[in-house]
# Entry
Amino acid sequence: MHSIIIFASGAGTNADAIIHHFKKTGTAKVVLIVTNKPEAGVLNIAKREEIPFLIINRQSFHETLIIEQMADYKPSLLVLAGFLWKMPESIIAAFPGKIINIHPALLPAYGGKGMFGHHVHDAVIHSGEKESGITIHYVNEHYDEGNIIVQARCAVTTQDSPDTLANRIHKLEHFYFPRAIEFLLGQME
# Structure
């Protein structure tokens, strides 16, 4: 069975969708949740699902100890599900080709530092875009520049607010992210 480590900074809705997907399929298991926020909602999910978790700060994130701790879990993938910090190059080097992220827009547009959540949706709406979506991509040393794995699209209407667009984007994330992970894990067998 494949092992997955999830990194999340917020409520953890994507983490929850991934956990439940693999509880149904039995092809993988979330073995650790890492967060940079002691008050993050994803910790409630970790506790409810009895998944070990690790709360990190900027210093511990850049130390080799975190690499050793993660390596003990023998992860097939590190999954960034709403994690807002840039991955240190040491972690990228330790897990080459095994770190993926989800972005709430169609990269390469609306990516980069500071482009997350409502900031992205607000920029998409104010630019007059007719569609938006999600991008699941590999992580490299630059924000949102890793090779694209899959994109899914949705319409942007003239009536949209960042909240209404976010709701449609979340539906895409919750459907496609677990399935993209499952596909990638299947390629590793």
